[in-house]
Amino acid sequence: MSVSRSNSERPNGCPPVTVLICTLNEEQNLSFVIPQIPKWVDEILLIDGHSTDKTVELAKHLRPEIKIMTQPGKGKGEALKFGVQQAMGEIIITLDADGETPPEEINNFIVPLLEGKDFAKGSRLFKRRPLKMPRYRWFGNKALAITCNLLFGTHFTDICSGYNAFWKNKFLQLNLPHDVHEVGCSMEQVIIVRSKKRGMNIEEIPHTSNGRIGGTSVLSNPGQTIVQGFKDWFVVIGERFQK
Fold first, then answer.
1. How many structural domains are present in the chain?
2. What is the CATH number of the domain that holds 31?
3. Is residue 217 part of a domain?
4. pLDDT tens digits, residue range 178-234?
5. Total-model pTM
6. Counting C-beta atoms within 10 Å of the first and last residue's C-beta, which end of the chain has fewer, N or C?
7. Parent domain of 164
8. Cβ contacts of residue 122 below 8 Å, gap of 6+?
9. What are the residues whose beta carbons fall under 8 Å from the beta carbon of 242, sequence distance 6 or more?
């Protein structure tokens, strides 16, 4: 199948698409994300993690048609799983709310699915270290990717990007952890390795990464980042020994 990757038009033969965004106090960044989502997208679904700023009000102002739900629990892992379950699209695109995953590149992720792939996973590190990514974070991300490659026979350059696309029915087959709060920020890694273990056809898609635009990340200092990095590392290793 030959499909254009221009974001200005809906790809030929594309089924319903949901763009899924998980938020927690992202008022400073949504103006750089939501308006850039192509108009042809069938559903924009925002799962909010009990924000205390004007995240929800701003999202409604930016795109009145947006569907907003409050996650029943807490943590990004739980929000992602809940959001996919609620989505109406056959294809799900996950975007970060902080501006690191440019919506202008959505078609680069949809086209591989239309060409037969099960999962299109993003990579911020395909060519070089993003300018806003500190060296210690770059090193940690590369270590995680190398660990995944050694344990699962993959050839990925990044397993932590929040920019991903997949068929909803394939996602629902992954048997993700029941207590996803325990997975937390490691959810992307769990999704990737479980997709690989199930024999799904995964394509890595390079994408632009200019880092968080504004505000403070939940991993706002090197100590927090390193601790989370070790959690991610142990999650990947643990997945190797689970059936």
1. 1
2. 3.90.550.10
3. yes
4. 555 444 568 889 999 999 999 999 999 999 998 777 655 555 566 777 787 778 888
5. 0.90
6. C
7. 17-240
8. 101, 109, 158, 161, 162, 163, 164, 204, 205, 206, 207
9. none
